[in-house]
Automatic annotation (TrEMBL):
MF terms in GO: methyltransferase activity
Organism: Mycobacterium haemophilum
Record-given protein name: Phosphatidylethanolamine N-methyltransferase
UniProt KW NADP keyword: no
Keywords: Methyltransferase, Transferase
Pfam families noted in UniProt: Methyltransf_23
Amino acid sequence: MTSASSASSAKVDNPFFARVWPIAAAHEATAVRVLRRENLIGLSGRVLEVGAGIGTNFAFYPAAVEQVIALEPEPRLAARARAAAAGAPVRVVVIGTMVEEFSGKQPFDAVVCSLVLCSVRDPDGVLHRLRLLLRPGGQLRYLEHVASPGAWGRLQRFADATFWPRLLGNCHTHRDTERSIVNAGFEVDTSRREWTLPVWVPLPVSELVLGRAHRP
């Protein structure tokens, strides 16, 4: 089910990424799809999804969710997300704006971040904003790239300093996202790391962190 908003900040314009991401999402590793679904298990009430992309998560929301407000500031991706929302099992409203500009009229029961905190310009500021948009006790569900140690970490730092953010929508693979989550005032309840690609695949995004945190 879908409801769309035409509001757009028009400050995010990634034409190359908007072309390649739908292809990448359509061929996403099975392990990542499994983690996406797990990230949404048990949600209910009103949910804010940040950086919805083409709406890959929408099909996985449980029936107990009353409404999803999905933010996607890249207009080409937002158009794809609205199409995906039409077939979602819950009501989804896609809004073409960044979370920094979004003003919720009432607090949310949960916030969902899936492969997005790597690409925002100010992750610390975004997480502080998300904390304010949650009700006390509300959950932050996150599935994100994670800074790896050793040789993989060196690969990530090289990718981040060269071609990766330029080609892939400002994605930075070596961010310490969980530290930013804690610094923003969240308390982490559960967290684990998962390899989603074979170890012989030399991509800096092979390792993900799946976690749940809450606003005290």
